[in-house]
Structures are given as structure tokens and as C-alpha cells.
Amino acid sequence: MSIESRSPRIVIVSDPGELRDQLQDVLLTEQFDIVSVITLDEYQPHSLTAQDTDMLLVDLHESEDAELDLDLVDALMEETEIAVLFHDSASNLVVTGWQQKLVKKIQQLFSKQPPKPLESLSAEAKTVQFKQEKIGFKSVPINQKIGELLRDIVNLSQADLDQSLSLQSDEKIGQVLLVQDYITEKDLAQALALQQGLTIAKPSQYPVDPVMEEDISKKFLTENNVIPLAVNGEVLTIASLSPEDSFIRDSLVMLTGMNVVVKVGVTSEFSAAHERLYGAGQSMMDQIVDDFDGDAEDDVEHLMDMASEAPIIRLVSLITQKAVEARASDIHIEPFENELKVRYRIDGVLQDVESPPSYSTAAVISRIKIMAKLNIAERRLPQDGRVKLRVDGKEVDLRVSTVPTMYGESVVMRILLNDSVLMDFDTLGFDGEPREQFIKVLMQPNGILLVTGPTGSGKTTTLYTALNKLNVPGRKIITVEDPVEYQLEGVNQIQVKSSIGLTFSNALRSIVRQDPDIIMIGEMRDAETAQIAVQSALTGHMVLSTLHTNDAPSSLTRLMDMGVEDYLVTSSVNGVLAQRLVRRLCPHCREKVVAPPEVVTELKLSQYTDDEQVRIYKPKGCERCGKSGYKGRSVVVQMMTMTDTIRRMVMKHEDATAINHAALKEGMATLLDDGLRKCLQGVTTIEEVMRVTHDVSQ
Fold it and tell me: Of 606, 641, 629, which is closest to residue 687 (Cα–Cα)?
């Protein structure tokens, strides 16, 4: 087989760590074939052959015995046709954009015909600089102004940049753009890193205890915004908020006699670490609110002034930034008599987080209402709005809802990341026979496919994934949604606006004249919408929609309760999917244990495995999952297809319980069945499955 007719086969030789994880992610994303991942200690010369491996990707760390490293490299290069050296050290090799450079280098090496072996390292090849040139990585400062770099990074318009430059006085342009919400702290750090040819300091790189505390004065570090990160031999690595200031580096070189490597600090992460190491132990939020002089005035103009102050802008930005970093789906800001509570919903569960003081309530809520273009003077009625912003380089859409409560307005912000919607059934957690049945019904030319479940059970994401599968040039797809959560390319999406009479039913009447092949209705809320959906299905359209019922059989009786005739239900509905969301176990720290005998007996777990001992998994908690033991969510589903038996029962107006029993006899699995099967696969836990299926597992 020629080398160009397949993906490169690569062996990673690297010790465990964040760099190795990133290497694997990069290679898998590019669909390169990772043959194996081994440590430097595990490698034995001639254990690999050219037939097994095309390339060795070696994370070769400097050691005290440099000759040992060179011997190892010689052996590695004899082992295969192509070898690449990768070095993670104080050399600053891992620069911004290194992933793309690595992929490009591999592709360049792999395109050679035939592949040529790299020469063995000579005695002069002991320096890090040689290894940088060998792989083609070089961190080079960019001769470009910081404002121009930021304009390119965040797609800032020249007009906005010029406006910010006109407002600049003593502040740096980056700080002006920050205050105006044009950029984030990480955008600024990325631009500084590119400009200076440096890397960004990661939160995990800040030390637990002060480094070189006796040699470098606290005053110098505080005045110059510097934190020593680590000492490695004769190399001192520091984080700085002013990496362009050569005075800082030169002073530390003279003071310590060491080579100094500078990393760029992200302001909030730097400040939190600096306060922890050298301050009074205040958090970033504490530092922000210290600068805020709040009061309880209700005057609208005064509220607008407070909401426009830099501390409140930074405070709201910090709340949203932390929520995105924590993978939260919602931010809840709730005022009480003596506190303002902030909570994030992470993987479906609300969690308390650090909150601002109660005296900032009016200013914080007013700031959010201004961002969402709501009326800050109206505090007696609910309001809905929308905010588009950029957090950590991601486009974020916030759906804002406010309602009046006893002690002020409660605010909930739904976080929608434009790149986070999953368009793959396998990734969502669909598998086995329910997946096959769902796809079979989905691909039918006409009829109704319903997805049912409570609010927050992932119904919309499932429908978007279904539409993505159906979205081909030969089909016209129109949706009616409230709200439109994600924009799908090639799909005509209509946003319901009840205030002007654009309801689900009114929109549907017009849609059928648009010659669609597939119609998606966000929710069947009333009899009129349900009637039009049924008529659309009977006239040759495929209709996808959602209902709020506990299980699949109940959806059929719900349609009849809404006024749809029984014969119309039986002739239009092709299938119903009920679903719930369970938290996924973190794959890095989950623990496999033997299930207690009483649990095996009560839940009849033996039917889901052929093993004598039933083994399940439990959460442990690690850094990757935030010590929770869970990371992400998966669906558990119940798929009911319409059979002749079920149609006859609907015509007889049998209740949902009877329909459910009949469907089970015909092979339908319950939500509990699918959940327990996923428990034995290590996807989730029994506690999670029981939490979301208790209402249908009686």
C-alpha cells in the first residue's frame, strides 16, 4: 500500500502530561492513525518496525544526562523512516498556533516520495535551538501594533478600533478595548503573545507557593506585575502582564544570574494567583467589588451610570467567562434579602459559585439588562432579551430572561455556544436498536416523528441532529421555533413572534405554501398547531416536533386530548422518541466496581450482561472534570414505533398505560432499560439513571 493511500501511522513517545493529551487531540482531529502511545521509559530499541509505524512523534525532555537522550534518539531514528522531535521545555517551543504548525510539518514530511529518514543527531545537536529548527517550529515576534493584532484576532472593525484609539489617553489600547467589551482578557493575552513571540501562562502553571521568595522582593513583583512560575536549572520562567517591557526581564537576569523565560499572563488568572501568593487572599471578584462604590438608589439615570462603570462591566464579564469555562448551560442570578446568589447549571445540575455582594445587585442586573437591550426602568414585568458576545475566543449567544421577585429581578441567562451543538447521534449517546429504529422512522418520506420529554431533556438538540442528517441539497427544510437556538446552514428557520401575530399555527399555514419537504415545529403547544401538523404529514410532508410528556406512549393520548381525531393520529404518527439526559462519567477517573447483590437483584442487572459478576462504574473526580466525577451528558431513550397493535388500541381510545404494556410486549425498551445498559458500559451511574427516570420507572 502506498504511503499516500492511507493516513500516517504515528507512535507517540511521551511521558504523561497535558502536552501528550494535546498531541493526541491534534492528531485525532486530523484523522491521523495513532498506533500507540508509550512513555520514554517503556520504549525499547527495535520494538517498532517500519511496517507498523511511519512516524515517531517524540516529546524528548532535557535531562541531566544529555548523552542518554541522544542515544535514545539514535535508536528511535533507526526504528522508522521518519522521526519528528518535539520538545516541551523552557525553550518556548510550544508557541501560539503550534498545533497547526505540527500538522503542516507532518503533512510535508509525509508527502515525500519515498519517505527519507532524517539524519541521526550529531554531537552538536544537544541544544534546544537545534531541535526547534529540526521540526521547523520557531517563535518569532511579529512586527505589528497590538491594536492591529487585536483587530485581526477578534474580527474587530477598523471603525471600532479608530474609535477606541480616539478615546485612548494614558491607558494602553488593549485596556481601552477591554473596557468597551470589544475584546476579552484572553484575546489581549493572545495578541501580546503573538506580538512578542511568547506563550501564554496556563492556570496550572502558577505555583502553589511563591518561587524565589527570598531572592526577589514582593514590591518589585507587585509594581511590575510579575509572578515567578518555576526554576528549572539555570532558567527562571515568569508570567508578566507587560511582556513587552524589557526592563523587567533584564532586571531579573541581573538579580538572579539566570536566563529568564517570559510567559504572558491572562489578567484575571494572573491577579487571582498574585493575590493568593502575595496578597490578602482575595479572589478576583473580591478585587473587582473593592473598586465599586455601590448604593441602593433606584434612580434610572444613576443605575445606568453604575452599570457603565468599569468594575461592574468587569464583574459581569467575569461571571459569564467563568460560566463558559465551567461548561455551564445557564447562569442564574437571584436576589434575596441579604445576598445576591449566582448559580451555574453544569451538566443539568445547579451549583453555587462565588457571588458578588448584595449591594451590587441593582448595578449587576442593570448591566445585564443594558447588554440585552431591555428597559432598565421596568422592574414590575418579565422581560426577554438577547446578548451576543465573545468569551475566550468563542462566539456566545446569551438568551436573557428577567422576572420580578420580592427582593428584585431574578435573571437567567441561557448560554448558547455556536460551535457546541452536537450533530452526531453517536456523540449524543444514541446506540443499539433504539438508534436504528429512530433513523428508520426519520428517513421515511412523510408522517410525524415526535420527540418528547421534560424541559431541559435535550429534545431540541436531538431535532437539530435529525435535521442535520436530513439536510441535503435535494430537500427543502423549514422550521418554526421559539426561540431559534442555533442557526443551521441550508435550513430556513422562522422565529415565532406572538406580539405581531406570528404564532406557530399562523406560520405553519404559510409554510405549506412554500413547498417544503421537511417541517420542524419547535413545540406542539395547542390544538390548532397539532391539527395543521397532522394535515401537513397527511399531504406528503415529513414533520418533526416535540411534546411535553413523560414517556412515548403518553404522546399519543396527549394528541387526542388536544383535539386530534384518533384516525388522524394513527395515520400520521410514525414514531415517538422519549428521552432524558444523564451526566456522563469522566472517562479519566471513573472507577469500576462490583455491583452490590441487592442492587443486581432489584434492578435485574444480570439481563444486561453475560458476565458472572455484574460490574458498574462510580465517579471519583479529577482535575479534568473539576473534581465532580462527571463531564458532559448522554441521552437515555425510549423509541416507540407505530405498529398495527398500537393503532388499534388508539382507535379504541385505550389509555397510555395499556399502550405502554402492548409496546413492551412488542419489544420496546424503557428509559430505565437504556439507562441501566449504559451504566454497565461505563457511560453513567445508577444514581444518575434513577434520578432522571424515577417518574417513569415505577
Answer: 629
pLDDT digits (tens, 9 = 90+) for 151-163: 776 667 787 788 7
- DSSP secondary structure letter of residue 54: S
- Closest to 530 (Cα-Cα) out of 494, 504, 557: 504
For 240-284, what is each residue's pLDDT tens digit? 998 888 888 888 888 888 888 899 998 888 888 887 787 655 556
SS (H, E, C) 426-455: HHHCCCHHHHHHHHHHHCCCCEEEEEECCC
CB atoms within 10 A of CB 278: 14
**CA 672 – CA 657 distance, rounded (Å):** 16
Q: Can you tell me whether residue 500 is helix, strand or coil?
A: helix
Beta-carbon contacts of 72 under 8 Å, excluding residues fewer than 6 positions away, are: 40, 43, 60
- Please, which residues have CB within 8 angstroms of residue 155's CB and are 6 or more apart in sequence? none
Residue 181: band (very low, low, confident or very high) from pLDDT cuts 50, 70, 90: low
Which residue in this structure is represented by grid cell 482575595? 282
**Do you know the residue count of the chain?**
698
Residue 197 C-beta-side C-alpha neighbours within 13 Å: 10
Long-range contacts of 443-447 (CB under 8 A, 24+ apart): 443/470, 444/542, 444/574, 445/540, 445/542, 446/537, 446/538, 446/540, 446/541, 446/542, 447/537, 447/542, 447/543, 447/572, 447/573, 447/574
pLDDT band at 19 (very low <50, low <70, confident <90, very high): low
What does the DSSP assignment read for 506-525? Answer: HHHHHHGGG--SEEEES---
Strand ranges across the sheet with 394-405: 349-352, 340-346, 328-335, 408-417, 394-405, 383-391
Taking residues 307-312, report their average pLDDT.
74
Alpha-carbon distance 680 to 28, whole Å? 27
Residues whose CB is less than 8 angstroms from the CB of residue 360 and which lie 6 or more positions away in sequence, other chains included? 289, 292, 294, 312, 315, 340
More confident residue, 164 or 369: 369
Which uninterrupted H or E stretch holds 635?
strand 630-641
What is the DSSP code string of 572-612?
HEEEEEEEEEEEEEPTTT-EEEEPPHHHHHHHTGGGG--SS
Q: How many CB atoms lie within 10 A of CB 678?
A: 24
Three cell numbers, residue 12? 507517540
State the angle between helix axes of 459-470 and 432-442 in degrees (0 to 180), rounded to the nearest 10.
60
CB 227 within 8 A of CB 277: yes
- pLDDT at residue 115 is higher than 60: no
Question: What gap in Å lies between CA 142 and CA 481, rounded to an integer?
Answer: 46
Cα–Cα distance for residue pair 123/126, rounded to 1 Å: 7
The span from the CA of 418 to the CA of 413, in Å, is 15
* Three-class SS of 130-192: HHHHHHCCCCCCCCCCHHHHHHHHCCCCHHHHHHHHHHCCCCCHHHHHHHCCCCCHHHHHHHH
Collect all residues with Cβ–Cβ distance below 8 Å to 574 and sequence separation of at least 6: 441, 444, 447, 448, 449, 641, 642
DSSP 303-345: HHHHHTSHHHHHHHHHHHHHHHHTTEEEEEEEE-SS-EEEEEE
DSSP string, 372-397: TT--TT--SS-EEEEEEEEETTEEEE
Residue 65 · residue 126 · CB < 8 Å: no
User: By the 8 A CB rule, do 416 and 485 touch?
Assistant: yes
Read off the C-alpha cell for 428.
Answer: 449524543
In order, the DSSP letters of 612-632 are: SS-EEEE----GGGTTSSEEE
For 226, phi then psi, to 5°, come to -130, 145
Tell me if the pTM is above 0.90. no
Cα 573 to the center of its chain, rounded Å: 35
